[in-house]
Design a protein that fits this description.
Blueprint lengths: L6 H9 L10 H23 L2 H22 L2 H27 L12 H12 L15 H27 L7 H6 L8 H20 L4 H13 L10 H22 L2 H10 L2 H4 L3 H7 L5 H16 L2
Helix pairs in contact: 2-3, 2-4, 2-6, 2-8, 3-4, 3-6, 4-5, 6-8, 6-9, 8-10, 9-10, 10-11
Length: 308
């Protein structure tokens, strides 16, 4: 890492690692990005114990990840420089906080300015890169998929950041709060997010690639962002399964109707279907490849098709 100190050195290092988009595994890239976002939050919070700093770190990593991937198509290089950025971020924040706490800086003359922190990290990772954005209607299929993957990851970032904020604002002396995170035997933010990533990213990509991004965002904001009861009256597994259910049904309806606008209207008209599903019921539907699971989806699709 020490050799990567000047803009010229960084740019030369990055350009020497460029790869062909043909070798890039798109599905692997958006899953890795989601995990990088998770890791940035976990490591930043572990080092600094400040929720806002962890959120900012994840925003930085998201931007670095996609800037590098679009410039190089090299997932290993992208992962390496994202890891480097997390280390630099935590070291820089730690250095500033120590200096302020030890009165090494004059009073009232310096606080931690996050704009300066961001610029420092970007300069040490992707600062020299100039991306050329071309409106090319003959864009390759894989490049279009990569753009869609970025949008999927952005939406996943919204969910991960929201869950993190709620998770670390829980009152661990409150039994109801503890029950709200009863997702596994020993619930941690990392385990919860790993489950969310495994359940959501592929389903979201399928809808995004069929112009369903607006519908996906509607689901996210309804269940997570704008829901005042999120992680208060029900455990987080309920909301994870509810979003999974909406994504599954939306995609199966899309396979039949071939029109995302029509699918969106059908789902909005029959919103009561989701509201009436209990925690116990939705857990049962997602038991491992049970016959009930298959029958449930068959009956659900028929319900939506017959209630247009």
């Amino acid at each position: 890492m020490s050799i990567l100190s000047k803009d010229k050195d960084i740019l030369e290092f990055i350009d020497n690692k460029k790869d062909s988009i043909k070798k890039l595994d798109v599905s692997r890239s958006y899953k890795i990005c989601c995990k990088a976002i998770k890791n940035s939050i976990v490591l930043s919070y572990k080092e600094n114990a400040v929720v806002d700093y962890a959120i900012i770190c994840s925003d930085i990593i998201f931007n670095i990840f996609w800037t590098l991937l679009f410039h190089t198509y090299n997932i290993k290089l992208t992962m390496f420089l994202c890891d480097r950025a997390i280390i630099l971020y935590n070291e820089y924040i730690g250095m500033l906080r120590t200096a302020i706490q030890d009165n090494l800086l004059e009073d009232n003359k310096m606080n931690i300015k996050m704009t300066d922190v961001k610029l420092f990290i970007y300069n040490k990772t992707v600062g020299p890169i100039i991306l050329e954005y071309k409106n090319n209607i003959r864009q390759s299929k894989k490049l279009k998929q990569l753009n869609i993957s970025k949008n999927v990851c952005y939406n996943m970032k919204i969910i991960i950041q929201h869950v993190f904020t709620k998770f670390y604002n829980l009152d661990y002396n409150n039994q109801l709060d503890l029950e709200s995170i009863h997702f596994v035997e020993e619930p941690t933010f990392e385990i919860i997010v790993d489950n969310i990533i495994s359940h959501f990213v592929t389903r979201m990509f399928k809808l995004h690639i069929n112009n369903g991004e607006v519908l996906v965002l509607d689901f996210i904001y309804e269940l997570f962002i704008e829901n005042e009861l999120f992680m208060k009256t029900r455990n987080i597994a309920y909301y994870v399964n509810q979003l999974k259910l909406r994504l599954d049904i939306a995609y199966r309806l899309l396979e039949k109707k071939k029109d995302i606008t029509q699918v969106s209207n059908i789902i909005k008209k029959n919103k009561v279907f989701f509201d009436n599903i209990t925690e116990e019921g939705i857990d049962k539907f997602y038991s491992i490849k049970s016959l009930l699971y298959q029958n449930f989806y068959k009956n659900s699709i028929n319900y939506f098709l017959y209630n247009l």
